Amino acid sequence: MFLRELTAAIDHIRGAGPKSIHTLARMGITSVADLLCHYPRDWEDRSREIPLRDYQKHPSVCTVVRVLAHDWFGFGRMKTLKVHVEDRTARGVLVCFNRPFLEKQLVLGNYYRLWGRFFYKYGDIQSTDFEIEVLDKGPPPGDEPDRPGGRLQSRNFGRILPVYPLSAGLNQGMLRRLVGSALDQYAAPLEDELPPGIIRREGLASKARAVRAIHFPASPEELELARKTLIYEELFYLEVMVGKRALERRQGGEGRREERGGPGKTGGFSPLQQRLLDRLPFSLTPGQMGAIAEINRDMAGPFPMARLLQGDVGSGKTLVSFLAALGAVEAGGQTALLAPTELLARQHAENAGALLEPLGIRPAFLTGNLRAAGRSLLLKALAAGEIDLVIGTHALFSRDVLYKNLRLVVVDEQHRFGVIQRSLIMGKGQSSLSSPGKPDLLMMSATPIPRTLALTVFGDLEASIIRDLPPGRKPVKTHLARESNEDKVYDFVRKELAAGRQAYFVYPLIEENGKDLKDAVSMAERLGKEIFPQYPTALIHSRIDEEEKRRIMGEFRRGDIRILAATSVVEVGVDVPNAACMVIEHADRFGLSALHQLRGRVGRGAEQAYCFLVYSEELTEEGKTRLKVMRENSDGFIIAEEDLKLRGPGQIAGIEQSGYLSLGIADPLRDAAELERARNDAFAMLEADPGLLLPEHLRVAQVLSRAPPFSKVAL
Ligand code: ADP
Ligand code: MG
Fold first, then answer.
1. pLDDT at 415
2. If you measure from the C-alpha of residue 318 to the centroid of ligand 2, how many angstroms do you get, rounded to a whole number?
């Protein structure tokens, strides 16, 4: 039995009540395997006595205390109980907010096990965050130190306890009990999933032991071993999946298709591509040329393309993707262009209308909130092959969307999409009604990916990099401004507006929320009524409905609206060349990659553009460093590196939040060394035995075949 085969519903676990089952389901935990893979986010070591006296040397105290006195402070409903206690080293106070019932439970003179985080306040060693447990056999008030196995031993004491990520309606106690029962009922027969050779070489634990110990380790050493084991296993299977994809592409396999002719062969452009280029008022940059040449070559080749197009904000990736779409049309196929937000999708759709419709291309726009009638018409047209290029959000890959012959999938700002979506997208090729094979895939990103991650997730991808920006672009001038000097910023922007330019003002909040921060809603009022009354101003943020957003962006693009007050919804992709000022308020609250993306919204035309980073008076050290990085750098690759340095592994922009790589316990940046070894193991195995037919690979083949797909690692 493999862990992932424990598909029994959690109501089979002893002690699982309807309430916890319901709450867990909302967290996506429905099976025993899900629960056992709900790894602790931390562990509390309650295995040793930490006396009150040592409260500063350790994060928490774990001891046996006697209750000395109760007293109350405050009035009415705010009345709060204080319980004075003493262990053999010191006295302390338990402050029982909202727990008046503890007065009865903590009986004067009796003994209790106590775990808590203590701090010094008003002359006392205090805790508000503690757990207590009755000591069944009241010990003689002797001075014998507490040892594991001694008086501290119980279900919640005398051991290392897991601390789980929770959600409303759950508490640690419930989860610990439930996981404990699940382990008792199911863990013993679990089989290893790694090849025995690897387990031996890496010195890992058996799967059964690792799963038990990750929740309830007997010692810190066992916890470390369990972590090591599960991390390696996760990375190994991740790399097996990556490796299989690479192999499939390289060796043909199911992806193989007929060799095609076309521009890729000759190195030039196709007729349609040439016609588009002839209509443009500018020529391609060398970076764009290089990228499209590589794309043309891939698309003419015998295997489906899997290419990552990296280029800084404003480098002109959209145009490259349109050229690729033209190639797909000429090959008789359809293109789907996927954008992370509706705003961006709409902008692409408008550009496609302007640039491609004159060439006879039939574009369409598909979003989640299309009315039913319109949607079904559009779906029919797609299935009939009457649409060449469909642009939209993830709605493009809903189950009911069928393509006649999907030839190319473009994913814009791909770092915003999860790995999971990637597999959905790639699966879509098969649902083409008359497609000869998988579609070509072009992923575009302005967020440079650290090498380790690129290798991990995109180990099977080729990359094209656009290193240059269109000529004539002047770098955006970036100024830092203290909030108290804001008037100067307004004066500057006023001059730019008078010269015909447009401006963005970005705020960290949509609405006022009592904090000392400016918000888009109230500032849109002020900007329009007080500060720049002569210029039309509009407000845009994520809660404004799509129809309205579209109208506003249209007017801003046409220049009818001159000032846009916004939240970071304008962060990705928005392209209005006449906008020359970007003012970011409370800039110190934004991450580096967001700042870089926001700044990239200006400087898209020939005019000099400006970015003002307005910071609050109480600036943190890290905030200060980020602003300096922004002032001194314009290159997205360098900014991404600085981001990595500042934020540390595991928190790279967009990676965690977007489920870029949603692993259960491994962190490819932190565990880079293990990743490298796991990758070598996986690739060597596949190289030697692509079909996984050798006896030593039997286990891996079984894991892959018996899997309901990984619950955490979906590829
Ligand atoms: P990004 O790579 O950030 O997605 P876009 O595709 O939005 O960049 O392009 C930014 C702007 O540059 C657009 O207005 C586009 O029309 C323009 N552009 C693209 N390629 C060139 C070029 N070779 N020369 C001049 N302007 C270009
Ligand atoms: Mg873009």
1. 65
2. 6
* Ligand 2 center to 470 CA (angstroms): 14
- Tell me the sheet residues that pair with 42: 163
Task: pLDDT band for 651, please (50, 70, 90 cuts).
Answer: very low
DSSP state of 5: G
**CA–CA dist 284, 210 (Å, integer):** 55
| Count of other CB atoms within 10 angstroms of residue 71 | 10
Ligand 1, residues 318, 321, 466: which to mutate, most atoms within 8 A of Cβ? 318
Helices (H) and strands (E) in the chain, counts: 23, 20
Which fold does the domain 477-633 belong to in CATH?
Rossmann fold (3.40.50)
Phi then psi dihedrals of residue 390, to 5 deg = -110, 135
- Among the atoms of ligand 1, which is closest to the Cα of residue 412? 4
SS3 471: coil
CA distance 559 to 162: 57
For atom 13 of ligand 1, the residue with the nearest CA is: 316
pLDDT digits (tens, 9 = 90+) for 685-700: 998 998 899 998 999 9
Q: Which ligand is nearest to the CA of 315?
A: 1
CA distance 58 to 69: 26
Residue 339 alpha carbon to ligand 2 centre in Å: 9
Mean pLDDT of the chain: 84
Atom of ligand 1 nearest to the CA of 283: 23
Q: How confident is the model at residue 183 (pLDDT cuts 50, 70, 90)?
A: very high
Query: Which tokens hold the place of 166?
Result: 């929770």
**Burial of 275 (C-beta count, 10 Å sphere; 0-12/13-18/19+):** middle
Pick the CATH number of 263-466 from 3.10.290.10, 3.40.980.10, 3.40.50.300, 3.30.310.180: 3.40.50.300
At 236-261, the pLDDT tens digits run 988 887 788 777 666 654 444 555 54
Tokens at 26, concatenated: 């909302």
577 CB within 6 A, ligand 1: yes
Q: Which of 313-317, 692-696, 711-715 has the lowest mean pLDDT?
A: 711-715
Q: What are the boundaries of each domain within the chain?
A: 48-158, 215-251+659-715, 263-466, 477-633
* 477-633 shares the fold of 48-158: no
Cα 576 to averaged position of ligand 1 atoms, centre (Å): 10
Contact assessment for residue 312 and residue 446, using Cβ atoms and an 8 Å cutoff: yes
What are the tens digits of pLDDT across the range 604-623? Answer: 888 899 999 999 888 888 88
Residue nearest to atom 5 of ligand 1 (CA): 316
For residue 306 the two structure tokens come to 């899997």
Residues 6+ apart with CB under 8 A from 331: 260, 262, 299, 407
Is the CB of 285 inside a 6 Å radius of any atom of ligand 1? yes
* 3-class SS of residue 442: strand
Q: Which ligand 1 atom is at minimum distance from the Cα of 284?
A: 23
Atom of ligand 1 nearest to the CA of 466: 2
Reply yes or no on domain 48-158 having CATH 3.30.40.10. no
184 contact partners, CB below 8 Å, separation of at least 6: 14
397: CA distance to ligand 1 center in Å? Answer: 27
Q: Which ligand 1 atom is at minimum distance from the Cα of 600?
A: 3
